[in-house]
Automatic annotation (TrEMBL):
It is found in: Membrane. Residues 1-17 form the signal peptide. SUPFAM superfamilies: Growth factor receptor domain, Protein kinase-like (PK-like). InterPro entries: EGF, EGF-like_Ca-bd_dom, EGF_Ca-bd_CS, Growth_fac_rcpt_cys_sf, Kinase-like_dom_sf, NOTCH1_EGF-like, Prot_kinase_dom, Protein_kinase_ATP_BS. PROSITE patterns: EGF_CA (PS01187), PROTEIN_KINASE_ATP (PS00107), PROTEIN_KINASE_DOM (PS50011), PROTEIN_KINASE_ST (PS00108). This is Protein kinase domain-containing protein. Keywords: ATP-binding, Disulfide bond, EGF-like domain, Kinase, Membrane, Nucleotide-binding, Serine/threonine-protein kinase, Signal, Transferase, Transmembrane, Transmembrane helix. Pfam families: EGF_CA, PK_Tyr_Ser-Thr. It is a single-pass type I membrane protein.
Length: 519
């Protein structure tokens, strides 16, 4: 039997002895007849493999964790997927076979630590051991600062913390079960790379390293302050503090926080890319899952849109509008931190890959339409200052775990005071959703958002994109195509078959009439 199998056998012997109440010996042969009170702990080491269980339900032992009370096994390949509940466990819930390896969560007995300590068979016999209560009984482990086998006499030995990574920035002195630090002797300095106190030339080198590190940190702080100024951080802070309409104070995150949350903006964290930037999934230090929007282009108008989005979203509290947690102004491009919405966009659900894996029911369609209408109504009429979104489209409607809709992307939005002119110099929006009047007059009203909402209703009815290819292989505006077909009295011919199957004709006509009014 090889050394690995021997280690497993000795460990298992300790467990076996603990369950029988007899002290274990490192030399005791695991699985020896009479050494265990139950076949659950018998190990067979006769075939160059360590096996546990009764044939044919035998499993190869891969590892044993005494501290955690876990035994890891592989399922024999010749058994295929036949065996689902191993005979080595008392109850099926003790055994997890969902992964590539089986994990048996074992306990010494089904007693609590309080009860077991009063009995002669108490298994935690090492002087530096602890008893741990678990749902199925108890098991033993070594105290903090010790390592080894808690089931045998003197099995828990002192851990030398000075030879493993620690937080000592000086001379490390190991003690029984712990350690302590002393400062470096006079004339020496702590080398953070070698983690020792050094003298002489090494001292000068360490001094140079510390100087360079401090200089880099200083320059990094200077650069981040400059970015903060360029990204109008002072203006935003002043805006947030003076605006009486601010419903909640967005947090200004440090770049270091968001780098840590996204693994330095690793490519595997990308949720999506749009015209204005990239969105990353992040996990903050308080375990909140967030979506972090990073602007793509470093231009003043992009920064202005960014500041505008923060100002707009800080005024909004609505269950169907995406929540802004805060922003970061210390990077070259500004960052926005939103609540994470897990199920993508309505556009994906209607036209993308999600449309093949999830079928949007007619009831869901009605509910999502009502939620979006509720959010737009709030923005236009109930917010402290009327807000026009200016880029309402299915790609800007996010869906959470329950497929509740959240209107997002307020970069192009405008808040309108009563006496403010509604003429804008630049038409913003997405082709296929643009209000034709707004496109020609640049006159900004809530009707522009209503027109875009009408296009979304048509998307839901027809399951076609806002710019479609007609029967003549020509690109055509979905809104115009819908209105023309409706005028010809052929609306039921173009409605999506799934909608026709789930909704009756009067319901379809009602939504079509509403879409017509919006358009």
């Amino acid at each position: 039997m090889g050394p690995v199998l021997l280690c497993l056998a000795v460990a298992a012997a300790a467990v076996c002895a603990a369950s029988s109440g007899a002290p274990a010996s490192p030399g005791a042969p695991a699985g020896a007849v009479g050494s265990c009170p139950t076949n659950r702990f018998l190990l067979n080491c006769t075939s160059n493999k360590t096996l546990i269980g009764i044939p044919p339900a035998q499993y190869q032992v891969i590892n044993i964790s005494l501290d955690d009370g876990l035994l890891f096994v592989n399922k024999p390949s010749n058994l295929g997927d036949i065996i689902t509940t191993p005979t080595v466990a008392n109850d099926s819930h003790d055994f997890d076979f969902s992964g590539s390896q089986g994990i048996w969560r074992w306990a010494v007995t089904n007693e609590t630590c309080h009860t077991a300590r009063t009995e002669a068979s108490y298994a935690c016999v090492s002087s530096n051991s602890l008893c741990v209560d678990i749902s199925t009984g108890y098991h033993c482990k070594c105290r903090l600062g010790f390592e080894g086998n808690a089931y045998i006499e003197d099995g828990c030995q002192d851990l030398d913390e000075c030879v493993v990574p620690n937080f000592c920035n000086g001379t490390c002195v190991n003690t029984l079960g712990s350690f302590w630090c002393s400062s470096c002797p006079r004339g020496s300095i702590f080398d953070p790379h070698k983690r020792v106190c050094i003298y002489g030339n090494g001292l000068h080198l360490a001094g140079l390293i510390l100087f360079v590190q401090r200089w880099r940190r200083h320059m990094q702080r200077k650069i981040r302050r400059e970015y903060f100024r360029k990204n109008k951080g002072l203006l935003l802070e002043q805006l947030m503090s003076s605006d009486e309409n601010v419903a909640h104070d967005p947090k200004i995150f440090s770049l270091e926080e968001l780098e840590k949350a996204t693994d330095n903006f690793h490519s595997t964290r990308i949720l999506g890319c749009g015209g204005h930037g990239t969105v990353y999934k992040g996990i903050l230090s308080d375990q909140r899952v967030v979506a972090i929007k990073k602007s793509r282009i470093v231009e003043q108008n992009e920064i202005d849109q960014f500041i505008n989005e923060v100002a707009i979203l800080s005024q909004i509290v609505h269950r169907n509008v995406v929540k802004l947690f805060g922003c970061c102004l210390e990077s070259e491009v500004p960052l926005l931190v939103y609540e994470f919405i897990s199920n993508g966009t309505l556009y994906d659900l209607l036209h993308g890959e999600q449309s093949t894996t999830f079928s949007l029911t007619w009831e869901d369609s009605i509910r999502i339409s009502l939620e979006v209408a509720s959010a737009l109504s709030y923005l236009h009429s109930a917010a402290s200052i009327p807000i026009f979104h200016r880029d309402v489209k299915s790609a800007n409607i996010l869906l959470n775990d329950n497929y509740t809709s959240k209107v997002s992307d307020f970069g192009a939005s405008r808040s309108i005071s009563i006496d403010e002119t509604r003429v804008v110099t630049i038409v913003q929006g997405t082709f296929g959703y643009l209000d034709p009047e707004y496109f020609h007059t640049c006159q900004l009203t809530e009707k522009s958002d209503v027109y875009s909402f009408g296009v979304i209703l048509v998307e839901i009815l027809l399951r076609k994109k806002p710019i479609l290819v007609n029967c003549f292989s020509e690109q055509q505006n979905l809104g115009h195509y819908f209105l023309q077909t409706l005028q010809d009295g052929r609306i039921m011919e173009i409605v999506d078959p799934q909608v026709v199957k789930q909704a009756n004709e009067s319901e379809i006509n009602e939504m079509a009439s509403l879409a017509e009014i919006c358009l």
